[in-house]
Amino acid sequence: MKKPLKILISQPTPTSSYSPFHDLEKKHKIKITFNPFVSIEGETVKNIRLKKIHIPKYSALILTSRNAVNHYFRICDEMRITVPNSLKYFCISEAVAYYLQKYIAYRKRKIYSANNNFTELAEMMNKHEKENFLFISSDKIKKDFKVALEKNNVNYDHGPFFKIVPSNLSKININNFQILVFYTPRDIDSLFQNFPDFKQNNIKLAVFGESTLKKAKEIGLEVDIKAPSSEFPSMSMALDSFLKNTKL
């Protein structure tokens, strides 16, 4: 009996039983393994102070992930800083905005959210030119985010409150998989840090986003599956089409 096709996805295992990836497994009789290629490390209070980030001076936050929300409030708690009720929150999406409820009385705060579009968010910030923004993120900000902020003359400082570091993948036999799925350029960095002698050979590669595609091409990897696109807005849809039309 032929062994099922194996796919490795560089994301945590979905918590919902309704994940489209579960449907893919049943439909195509394949085996999907989820394993994050990167992990989050919170920055220390000492390093925040060394970077001379004086949190109370900022009147507004830029938040593009739940990690940013968690680590902002963690640092404030560890520094014994009381978050003022007047603070404004500019969130990349409604999901991030709603997540603030974990820490604040949501309906009593000034919260703005975009439709998962940073350019749209930067345009919102442009209308609040008197605010002093702190961009809570990892140690790196995406280039297109910086461009959007500069274009809209947003007065901001970078708050690197956490780091994205390679996960330990020593328990994974990377050559056991026929398809690898990456969501960020750092996933690909982690691949080569964990497997410096990696050769793609017959392994198919799926990437999500233009920055991940660019990183793969720069390293010389051949990309077989791309998302999002007008035809395949999600990775599960792109994989479904590939599996229907390709024999492995």
Could you characterize what this model shows?
- The protein is α/β, with parallel strands linked by helices and 248 residues long.
- It folds into 2 domains: 6-37 and 180-245, Rossmann fold (3-Layer(aba) Sandwich), CATH 3.40.50.10090; 41-164, Rossmann fold (3-Layer(aba) Sandwich).
- It contains 9 helices and 12 strands.
- It has helices at residues 20-28, 45-50, 66-78, 94-99, 118-126, 143-151, 185-194, 210-219, 235-245, and strands at 6-9, 31-34, 38-42, 60-63, 88-91, 110-113, 133-137, 156-160, 162-166, 179-182, 204-208, 225-227.
- A 5-stranded parallel sheet has the order 2-1-10-11-12, with helices on both faces. Strands 6-5-4-7-8 form a 5-stranded parallel sheet. It has a two-stranded antiparallel sheet with strand order 3-9.
- Helix 1 (20-28) packs parallel to helix 9 (235-245) and helix 7 runs parallel beside helix 8 (210-219).
- The two termini are 15 Å apart.
Question: Which features characterize this protein?
Answer:
5-stranded parallel beta sheet; Rossmann fold; 248 residues; 9 helices; alpha/beta; 12 strands; single chain; elongated
Shape: elongated
| Count of runs of 4 or more consecutive helical residues | 9
* CATH class annotation of the largest domain: Alpha Beta
Number of separate strands: 12
Radius of gyration: 20 Å
Q: Please give the alpha-carbon distance between the first and last residues.
A: 15 Å
- Series of secondary-structure elements, N-terminal to C-terminal: EHEEHEHEHEHEHEEEHEHEH
How helix-rich are the residues, as a percent range?
25-40%
Broad structural category: alpha/beta
Strand order across the biggest sheet? 2-1-10-11-12
Our estimate of the beta-strand percent is: 15-25%
